[in-house]
Amino acid sequence: MNWAIENIPTTAEWLVRIDADERVSPQLARELRKLIETATDDVTGILIARRTQFMGKRLRFGGTFPVWLLRVWRRGAGRCEDRWMDEHIVVAEGRVVRVRGELLHVIPKSLADWSRKHIWYAERELRDIAAPAGGDVLSGQAAVVRAAKMAVYYRLPSMARVLAFWIYRYILRLGFLDGKVGFLYHFLQCAWYRMLVDGLLEEAEITAKSETE
Predict the structure, then answer these.
(1) pLDDT for 63-105, tens place per residue?
(2) Domain ranges, ordered by start, for the chain
């Protein structure tokens, strides 16, 4: 992505990152236009609130909304983290502000496709854990989540932390209020996927140990 940011010719003052399965709400489009037209020169990044739609339901609880992401930035001020998973846009200087409206992340895949894709995600996350990237400095909500993940979550006992995370998201963060679809989402995202990552970590440790014996 950084190659595109640096090499694709454009005269646009602002750049936007949006995935193929994300949709800009009408309110967000209006607010972005107003903000970009009136932003002072010290504003270099804009945070957007992302909401997840899973199996046709817009999730509200369990920490799924709002997820603030820096998706709009001044040309020349931002770059993408060099990571395999959960990479964010970071700005080296200037002020980052929030905008009203939401970016809807529509998960259109079947559960089978979604599950297969997350096996691939788990393998990529394993690479980040083994060789965490450095250099880029996150801020805001993304920085808090990343710090908690690396400094707290991965210091807890393997596999037991998965249960603790699921309880936190589904019960303490009220994920159960999203009904049956909410249960499926949080079980698959917070329990099954995280257990898969821990299983791959365990497998890698066993393999490394057997190779040294």
Answers:
(1) 999 999 999 999 999 999 888 888 889 998 999 999 999 999 9
(2) 2-107, 111-212
